[in-house]
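2024-03-11 09:14:02 INFO queue: dequeued item Adenosine deaminase/editase, len=384
2024-03-11 09:14:02 INFO validating residues
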Amino acid sequence: MHPSFDDIASAALLVAASLPYKPQPDKFTILASFVLESRTSGLVKVISLGTGSKCLPSGRLPPRGDALHDSHAEVLARRGAVRWLLEEILRDTRQPSDWVDRRTDGMYDLKDDIILYLYVSTVPCGDASTRLLASLQDPNIASFKDSTSWPILPAGAPSRGRDDYARIGVLRTKPGRADAPPVLSMACSDKIARWGVLGVQGALSSAFLKPVYVTAIIIGDVVEEMREIVKEDCERAFYGRIGNLSGLPDGFRLARPVVGFTSLPFVHSKAQLPELSTSSNDSLCWIADSGYEVLINGLRRGVPPKHRNSQKFRPMLSKVSLFGLYRTVLTALALPGPDVSYHSAKQSSESYQIAKHVLLGPEAPFSGWIYSGTEWENFTEDAH
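2024-03-11 09:14:37 INFO prediction written
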């Protein structure tokens, strides 16, 4: 008997409840988790958790890759899943894994009977949640927004946050207050759609890991009467708006994950707390078989400023930390690892870059994607 969506959500919620970290009682947050299931044995394994709803403004991005740009729950959970996959490949070189397998072509992949779920405690920000949020707004605020004259944007250009929520099927940056500094992080709906073409493993891991796709996305905090609308919006946001893609390299595809719901509550969700509760500034990162840490402003909480550049205190999901782990895996697999920058290493994943161009290049469905810029990726593993 295969686990239900409630079973998958429950597994993630149980792990979250078991951890020492808890948000402050009057603060809400979002929880996301990647979960593996063996279709043969029915065994379920939660591989990563993330909580959070913050990201850094463009003026505070780190040049050394040692702070996280985006600390939304889905993004942290995905980076945690990447770290778990890298560590599981390392473990497989010593003892065969139950979850990943090295194929005859030398590339790793999930075993044939393994599927991947994404659980999110509420609807991801961006295109997937626009109509839901509009339905929940105070009538006076909704009337004000309806009467606001929004600038006409070029086709494909992203909207800022929740501006002009009547504009659906488009890219959006992360939401935030109108008076807040702008950010360069795309909405979680957009990032989930991107993972549905490029895989969750990212450019670096593509050197030795085939694309890894989510089979189903399970969402909480949606009342029964809104589920049909939210399901329609999620299906559009996660894959429907992309249309047909041609020119993808072997192994890449447009995934169409099943969208499902759970009524199991996340106790720190906004829906479970008093109306005047505010969002937590903290973010939790947990990786199975590894450990957890808490971030604030993209850095490990509690680390004094004088130690923030120390390798010992880097967030384990930061770009520079994952780059170091990637190099360790290359060595363990006896693969060449040229002494290049993080950006150059990403560019060397040829098939991934071709797939990325098909999705994000000029005239592509996501041609309006905003990038932080190569200046934030020109560091090496030994950056101090």
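2024-03-11 09:14:37 INFO annotate: The chain is about 30% helix and 15% strand.
2024-03-11 09:14:38 INFO item closed
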